[in-house]
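Board notes (copied after class):
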Amino acid sequence: MVGGWTRTVTAVAAVLVLAGCANTVAGSARPGAAPAAPVLDPCALLTPEQATFLELQPQGRLTPGKEDRRLPPSCRFSPGEDSDDPSGVDIVASLSMSLATFHAGAAPIEELQLGGLTWRRYPNAFGDGFCNYAVVLSEQSFVEVTTTNFGDKSKACDLAKRAVPFVAAHLPGGAPAPPMPRKPAEPVSPLASMEPCDLITADQMGPLEVQPQGQKTGTGRGNIDGDPGCEWPSLSPDRQPLYVALALDRSADQVAQGEKADEQVQVNGRGWGLHRTPQDSKMNCAAVLAFGEKSAVMVTGGHRREPGKVCDQVLKALPVITAKLPPA
């Protein structure tokens, strides 16, 4: 098979041996026994810091090689949690197989200089969604970096080209690793310092027909995971609880799950999007306020028996809540 996706493993092994870092197993050799093969760690070709910079998981997953099947040791760096690229990076390394053997004699289709070394790209039987760049270390050793992109095949090599200079820095003759400028910190939402349960005080509960003590919700705060919020149980069996959530890293559109508001309600100079039947629920009402581009406030309530009153409670709560919000 040309290019073998399943064989795409990191040449870290080759690097470690050439650098004198191979591990050996202690013990006395038996007469006539073949020398033990060095134990290699392909995952050492990217440091945790480099992997994180490439938006990968900081630690790679090692797969031992099967050289008799042309499967050198490999390391899989999966995409990081915040990565927009679902590819990840696979690195292959061999100390006992030529690159020509690995690619079954196929000719390279591209050659380029990256990280002070010459890298060659080979065709892959699975198509242009796969991209690999390999460097020869000796007649019987090589390293190969592989990435994929099936959504846009023209970008299949983008991540590989970013990763290769970092891998090259760990190889003999490779240039120093490129700098890793820190990404600017994401601005913190002004909502981050607010406690949702403080947005309505006990003396303001009367018209809202809810219990005076709100219950904290949100991941690490209560029984309901998600954005930090507060829920006030209703005093009436016909009314839904009143609920407020502060989305610190989600836009108003994301909070509304892409639904368009039925109308805009102006409260104290701020425009809330009112959803009279969110997610087609006739017993619930929601209001969403955009708070910058990446945060929002949501208020929900409802009425179980009278659809005409489904938004009454929410509309009464909006002036109280809006008055407590900081400037966007």
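Comment from the instructor: The longest helix spans residues 312-324. The chain has two domains: 5-168, 190-324.
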